[in-house]
Amino acid sequence: MPDDMHDFFASDEHWASADDLIPATAPPPPPLSRRQKRQALAEARERAKRRRIIGLVIAVIACVSVVVCAVIGVNFIRNASNRFEPTKTIAADWPGPGSGSVEFSIETGQGADLIARNLVKAGVVKSSEAFLQALSNEGATGRIQPGVFQLKSQMKSSDVVTILTDPKQAGGFLEVRAGDRARDVIARAARISGLQQADFDAIVNAKGNGILPPEAAGSFEGWLEPGTYNVKEMKSAQQVLRTIVDKRIAKLDALGLPQGAQREDLLNIASIAEAEVNKSDYYGKVVRVIDNRVQQGMTLGMDSTVAYSNNVSALKLTNDMLNDSSDPYNTRVHKGLPPTPIGNAGDRALQAALKPEAGNWLYFVTVNMDTGETKFTSSSQEFNSYVQEYKAWESQHNAG
């Protein structure tokens, strides 16, 4: 034993401490059984499912939070704007009903703003704002009528709106219609304008000197342009008639009607077409009948020309009127066109006179006065059957 110890120390060896010991490697765990593997896989899937659900819940909560915050923010802004918005002032208005009398004119095409300002200037309403507000409240912005109205000073704006939107309250405007006769237009012009009828008569008796073109041959018939005219604002009968005739000449130029005697003839033909039928679809055919009968040397045989000279409607013609050979407008007796047009022709009748429909018709009869149905033919026998058809209608109509 000593020898061994001597050898040990001689070899410079020493005892190893616990720290110097190299630990042994742990043995690997035993492999999982199939049951354990299935259980571990199921647990992993369950954990993944829980993570997805938790993520979805978090996303939904985040979205809801954003929406709630947005709604709260919008409401806050709205409430804040309402809190800080200045209180709207009520437009100054008179309590009404007003007093005195104010004649107030509205021209065609005038806007609501201009009308409102003019009402304030005239002392009718207290403020433009009150009138425009009343107009809006009534939904009547586009229903203001042109014309001359009888109002009062210091009226309530809503009362003014009621009057200005009522066509029956409008005055001072002369309406010239297609088919009107000159004598009727001139009489209305005198009445509405307030000018003397004698002033108009003097111009007519002077053959429209300085107003009518030479081809009119001194007659206003056919030379008054349909339309609406503010005659209340005009200062004289001369101004009224000149305005209407000038409008007519401008329209004829625009439609391309030739100048001179040919223009007068076209006005004449168009006026007959305007008077003979009540549907514009027939104008072109009526003009063709007139042209065909003139070319063949036939009388026109138009009741409308006789009605014009006797100042009655065609329905009130008598046999004596229809057989009166002394009447230069009796186209049943006299060939060719009447001495002048027999009324104002509208644009469609004028265009038909300029370019009539093609056809060989010589006769036409309006067989139904309610519908305006008119039949055309070149046969006198067929014409007679149409006349009987009209008489049957007339008999039923009078019986009713």
TrEMBL record:
Its main location: membrane. Its EC number is 4.2.2.29. The keyword Cell wall biogenesis/degradation applies. Keywords: Cell membrane, Cell wall biogenesis/degradation, Lyase, Membrane, Transmembrane, Transmembrane helix. The record marks E276 as: Important for catalytic activity. It is an enzyme of class 4 (lyase). It is found in: Cell membrane. It is a single-pass membrane protein. InterPro entries: MLTG-like. It catalyses: a peptidoglycan chain = a peptidoglycan chain with N-acetyl-1,6-anhydromuramyl-[peptide] at the reducing end + a peptidoglycan chain with N-acetylglucosamine at the non-reducing end. The keyword Transmembrane helix applies. The chain crosses the membrane at residues 53-77. Gene3D superfamilies: Endolytic murein transglycosylase. It comes from the Bacteria. Belongs to the transglycosylase MltG family. Functions as a peptidoglycan terminase that cleaves nascent peptidoglycan strands endolytically to terminate their elongation. This is Endolytic murein transglycosylase.
